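Quick note —
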Amino acid sequence: MSQIKEIAGLLKELDDQLSLCMRCGTCQSVCPVFEQTGREADVARGKLALLDGLIGEMFKNPENACNRISKCLLCGSCADNCPGNVNSLEIFIKARTVIISYIGLSMAKKLVLRGVLVHPKLFNRVMKWSARFQKLFLKPANEMTGTSCARFVSPMIRMIKGRHIIPLAEKPFHVMVPELNTRAGSSGIKAVFYPGCLIDKIFPDIAGAVVNVLNHHGVGVLIPGGFGCCGIPAISSGDSRSFNRLVLHNLDLLKGYDFNVLVTACATCTFTIKKIWPIMLTHATPEQRSGVERLAGKTMDINKFLVAQFNIDANQGKQNMDIVTYHDPCHLKKSLGISTEPRTLIKASGNYRLKEMPDADQCCGMGGSFGIEYYDISEKIGQRKRDNIISTGCKTVATGCPACMIQIADKLSQEGDQVTVKHPIEIYAESLKQKK
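Predicted structure written out below.
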C-alpha cells in the first residue's frame, strides 16, 4: 500500500510539471539523441507526450515505456533551452523511478546496484580485484590517451564492444589517502573533498591534484574514510531504494564534522549532490532531509570554488605554447551554469594557449549507462565531439567531468589521435608545482 501511495505521489508531481510543456519543439534543435535518430520519440517533447498517458502505458506496455524514457542522455540540453522552463531532466528521472517501482529492476542492474554499489566496502573490493585481473583481458591501445582495448572477444567483457577504455588505476585514491583531516590554513576555510567513484578508481591523479591545490591555497581538507557513490547510477536507473541508501550513507559520514564547503572535481557528482539529492530523497526523517539540503547548499565544483575564493590570475599562454581546448560537461554548464571558471584555471597555468573548439558545450554522448545500452548512438555523438577537438590542432583537451574524459579518450584513441585528456585542476596543479 505504501508503494502504491508513493507511485501515486510521484505521478501527481509529474502531472503538475508536464502541464508546463507547450510542445513547441525547441528541444528538437538541441537534443543530441534526436540529431542522430530523427525520431520524435527520442526527443524531450515526445517523451513528455508519452508521460501524459503514463498510467495507461505502464499497465499496457511497461517495458516499452521504460525503454523510451531510458533512451536519454540526461544531459539537460532540453531543460537548459526550454522557453517554458520545463525541468525535463527532473521529470525523466522521476518517471524512471515510477516505472521501475512498477516493473522492477532487471536482474543485472539489481546485482550491480543493490548487490554491490550500495555496499562501499564490497564495491571497493570488487574494483580492487578487477584492477588486478584487467590486464588478462585488456591490452594497451594509445599511450597518449592512456587507453586499452579488449585482447579478445569474450562474454565477460562484451560491454566494452569496440571501445578503447581507460583501465582501473592500480592503486585507487582511497588506498593512497584512506582519510584526511587537516586544519584550515591561511584561507580560514575547511573543505570536504568528495572524490566520487570514477576519480577514486580510474583518475586518482585528479584527486591528488585537488588536495595539492587546496593545500597550496591554505584550505583545510577533510576526507572521512568510507565515502560511497553519489547515487546517480541508481537514480538514473529508477532505483530510488539504492539511491536513498547511498545518500544517507554519505550524509552520516559527515555527522559531527565542522566544514565550510564540500568540493568535488566531478561535474556529475556536483550536480547530483546539489540538485538531485534534495528533490529525489525519500523515506527520510526531517533531520536527514534538512541535512541533505544544507549539504547541497555547501557543495561546489572545484573550479568554481577556486575562482570564487582566490585571486586566480588568468594570464593567457603565449602564442607559441601548446594548444589546449576545453569541453563543457553538460552537468557543469547546462545544469550548474559553470563554464568560465575551468577556462580561468587553464589560462592561469601559463603553460597552454586555450583555443575554443566548435560547439564546446555540445554533449559528448557518454551519459553513464546510456553509453553501454545505446553505444551506436553514443559513438556517433562522440565522433562529432572528437572531430571538433581535432579541428583546433590541440595537443591536450581538458574537461571537468571524468565520464566525459572516458568518452573523449575512447574516440581519440580509436582514431589514433595523439592528444592527452586532462582535468583543468590537473593543468592548474602542474603550474603551481612549477612555480615552487
